[in-house]
Amino acid sequence: MEVTRNPYVKKTALWLAVLFLVCATVCFFLHPAAGAVTLFCGAAALAVYLWDSRRRYRAIRLTADEIDRILHGKGAFDPQLYDEGELSILHSELRRLVIRLGEQSEQLQADKTMLANSLADISHQLRTPLTAIRLNNASMQQPTLAQEKRQMLCRATEEQLERVDWLISALLKLARLDAGAVKMKGEPVALSDLVRAAAKPLELVMEIKGQRLETAVSGGFVGDMDWTTEAVGNLLKNCTEHMAEGTIRVTGSENPIYTELIVQDSGKGFTKTDLPHLFERFYKGENSSEKSVGIGLALTRRILTAQGATIKASNAPEGGARFSIRFYKSSV
Questions:
Q1: For residue range 40-71, what is the model confidence (pLDDT) as tens digits?
Q2: CA-CA-CA-CA torsion sign (95, 77, 5, 25)
Q3: CA 257, 260, 266 angle in degrees (round to 5)?
Q4: Which of 98, 138, 263, 285 has the fewest Cβ atoms nearer than 10 Å?
Q5: Which CA distances in Å does 183 have to 147, 186, 306, 310?
Q6: b/e per residue, 187-223, with b = 16+ CB within 10 A?
Q7: CA separation (Å) from 263 to 238, 250, 266?
Q8: pLDDT at 103
């Protein structure tokens, strides 16, 4: 790119040339030597201006070429390319912009991958109960089917519908939390009331499976009662699903730094392979039941982190799964 093709440079150079010619003409009338010196100085100044402009626009062209290569994935910014004030600042800002755009592009690609994987997981999770419902419906349409068998199929269909309903409800809750559409309340919550509310929907299931719930809680925290009940309920539900007969023990206490709630069962516990992935969406452990969809623990962690709380899963020393939740009274 020739510098004289730039309209701004061309216009400025013409104005400078006219100014120098006028000054040189005036000086010639005063003295021929003065006119010659003025003409020489004007020409030299014009040449310096054109040279400096050419250097600047060459640097800008190099920056444009760099951006083009980066956009096509063929290069990266060279921080040593410029040492001039304004151009160095411009280059630095453009470099930051390119880095930021690159990070956003990577994040968008990661989000697209996660969305695709999540849709595939959701499709798989819904297909299983829907297939069972379809088969049960086809069987119930047989006119010779015994009434006892028909009732059994109805109960099985109802269970599958409840599974679909819970899965959709959990996914909608996760979506609301991810979108920031949920505003957590900041109200005093007693641990005793929290555990009682979380365990109530599971009383019948625990009674049928011969499971006992032991509680020893005191103290409280500031948070959202409804959402935290959902979170703790998922932990209790996880315990009931992953063991037969046994005991689920819930303990809680408060100290000046945090309030801790521990949920522990007497089941098989977690394998070393499962522990790092327990709170990932749609992850199903080695000892998970057929009814598990791998969403409850992910929802639990999302609810707790939205309130500034933490949750940790481990195996209890005496055996069984152990979940520890801490509600901090201030940032630590």
A1: 887 887 788 777 777 777 777 777 777 777 66
A2: positive
A3: 155
A4: 138
A5: 49, 9, 9, 18
A6: eebebeebbebbbeebeeebeeeebebeeebeebbeb
A7: 10, 5, 11
A8: 80
Q: Which helix (H) or strand (E) holds 292?
A: none
Q: Under DSSP, is residue 321 helix (H, G, I), strand (E, B) or coil? A: strand
The answer on pLDDT for 94 being more than 80 is no
Give the sign of the dihedral formed by CA 9, CA 10, CA 12, CA 13.
positive
| Residue 125 burial (CB count, 10 A) | 20
Distance of CA 61 to the CA centre of its chain: 38
The two structure tokens encoding residue 58: 């060459």
Q: In terms of residues, how long is the chain?
A: 332
Sequence-separated (6 or more) residues with CB below 8 Å from residue 48: none
Contact 306, 222 (CB under 8 A): no
314 DSSP β-pair partners? 322
248 closest CA partner among 206, 301, 186: 206
